[in-house]
Every structure is written in C-alpha cells, then in structure tokens.
Amino acid sequence: MDISFLNISPDLWDRDDSYLKSQEIFQNLRVVNDTAERGVKLMQDFNGLLTVDEEKKQFLPHCVEDHRKQYPGCKKATLKRKFD
Predict the structure, then answer these.
(1) What is the pLDDT of residue 55?
(2) Residues 6+ apart with CB under 8 A from 84
C-alpha cells in the first residue's frame, strides 16, 4: 500500500491516487471479534472430546469461568495463590 499521501497536506488527500486507493482498501476491511471467535472455536474443538454427557458439557464452561475468577491472570504469583 502506497502511503505517500501522508507527505502532503490532508486538504489534498481527496485528489491523491494513493490516498483514494488506501481509503478503498480500509473501507473493505472486515471487522473481526478475535476473542469471541477463538472462544467459539475452542468450544467447537473440544465439544465431544472430554465427555459425551450433555449435563457435563453444560457444566464445563462454568468450571472454566470459576477458574478464571479465582485465577484472573496467568502470572506465576497468581497461579501459586492458595485456592479459596
């Protein structure tokens, strides 16, 4: 992507080819919620691997949530903390 338009006054950008091309590229970018998509993918990948019992499948996300509340970070000090 040509960013030469950054060297000229913003007043002239709407007539600059490199700006117009860059604007087109950015307007066509798709916004992605990467965190949510990773969570969904994780659940899809492990669905059925740990258990086939539906009740246990429903319980598993609650266990993960409780663990994240008790251990909010992945630092060594956090993980060494005593279980409440």
Answers:
(1) 82
(2) 70
